[in-house]
Specification:
Structural class: mainly alpha
Shape: globular
Bound molecules: adenosine-5'-triphosphate, L-tryptophanamide
Helix content: 40-55%
Number of strands: 5
Order of helices and strands: EHEHHEHHHHEHEHHHHH
Largest sheet: 3 strands, parallel
Strand order of the largest sheet: 1-2-3
Radius of gyration: 21 Å
Length: about 325
């Protein structure tokens, strides 16, 4: 039987960014070739911070369109929206009841996000976010969960919860492996190249969006912050700006940074920027155009997501039923 993988990205902006694309999406697209892949849009996670309702619905569609435009094939992979599959919320409750206050309080993403909103104002949803994520994963019994470095702690918690449940109630869950891809590029902010590129970064020019116009993408690359000196060399500590541009180039062109150093020996920063801008536009322009094309027919997108949700529910239903039976819930009589 083909092994299964599962992952998701929050629909918390109008566009995915270059970090999401090179750090995760490119890897997902490859994985669907050899795995039974489940990719979903965690809209329930998105509401752990305030979202405008109309924006959220639109962003879910935009995220789905971008998944597909990047190469996720909805025929081959199961592509769905989290809130369309009620078993996620149902299993999340059971997971919450297995989790200790102490271990939940140690989650660094929770601590960071709670600090940002001022701990008194942080919603309880932020606290239970990792247990919902555990439910997302365990419902589908995946062999592994391809995520970035920042999600490692949540997958570790998921493994602990699976083991704890199995121990308390008898073998039920497969304990998933953590798959942080070694090849997944870590992309930094173009204006502040020691911070990771993120939707919540400080300068809009530091964030390269997949849905940006060609002109905007090129401009952001050309105005990226560079370092003192003039040598084009990969050295994360001494030359964070140039190293970031070389990483992006390397991830897009498939050339190793050392090869690029040779290619750019004796040339100026400006040359690297101009050529990288062309490469980015050449690669991401068609992705954006395809996403926009898909968004012209929201009915078709919704239908496709409905088919994905159906497939996901069929996989999730028996797992939740087993969990309910194991914890001792009285089966509801039919009718
Ligand atoms: P936030 O604005 O909350 O920081 P984000 O931009 O980091 O969000 P997520 O939705 O948390 O995006 O991440 C989706 C996926 O993209 C994860 O697997 C994550 O590891 C990966 N990812 C996000 N930013 C980068 C980056 N700068 N470089 C490489 N991978 C990234
Ligand atoms: N927390 C993840 C998104 C996410 C996820 C998941 C990833 C929610 N549920 C299950 C993998 C598996 C993020 O912010 N990137």
């Amino acid at each position: 039987m083909t092994e299964r993988v599962l992952s998701g990205m929050q629909p918390s902006a109008d566009s995915l960014h270059l970090g999401n694309y090179l750090g995760a999406m490119v890897n997902w697209v490859q994985l669907q070739e050899s795995y039974d892949a489940f990719f979903f849009i965690p809209d329930m996670h998105a509401i752990t911070v305030a979202q405008d309702p109309a924006d959220l619905a639109e962003r879910v569609r935009r995220t789905a369109a971008q998944y597909i435009a990047c190469g996720i094939d909805p025929e081959r992979s199961t592509l769905f929206v989290q809130s369309h599959v009620p078993q996620h919320a149902q299993l999340a409750w059971v997971m919450i009841c297995q989790t200790g206050m102490g271990e939940a309080g140690r989650m660094t993403q929770f601590k960071d996000k709670a600090a940002k909103s001022g701990s008194e104002h942080a919603g309880v949803g932020l606290f239970t976010y990792p247990m919902l994520q555990a439910a997302d994963i365990l419902l589908y019994q995946p062999h592994s969960v391809p995520v970035g470095e920042d999600q490692k702690q949540h997958v570790e918690l998921t493994r602990n919860l699976a083991q704890r449940f199995n121990h308390r109630y008898g073998e039920t869950f497969r304990v998933p492996e953590l798959a942080v891809p070694a090849s997944g590029a870590r992309i930094y902010d173009l204006q502040n190249p020691t911070a990771k590129m993120s939707k919540s970064g400080e300068s809009p020019n530091g964030l390269l969006n997949l849905m940006d116009t060609d002109k905007k993408m090129a401009k952001k690359i050309r105005s990226a912050v560079t370092d003192d000196g003039s040598e084009i060399r990969f050295d994360r500590a001494a030359k964070p700006g140039i190293s970031n541009l070389l990483s992006i180039h390397s991830a897009l062109s498939g050339k190793a940074p050392s090869e690029l150093e040779e290619e750019y020996a004796g040339r100026m920063y400006g040359h690297l920027k101009v050529e990288l801008a062309e490469l980015v536009v050449e690669r991401l322009g068609p992705v954006r155009d395809r996403a926009l094309e898909l968004l012209e027919d929201p009915g078709e997108l919704d239908a496709l997501l409905a088919r994905g949700a159906q497939k996901a529910r069929s996989a999730a239903e028996p797992v939740l039923a087993e969990v309910y039976q194991k914890v001792g819930f009285l089966p509801a009589a039919p009718g």
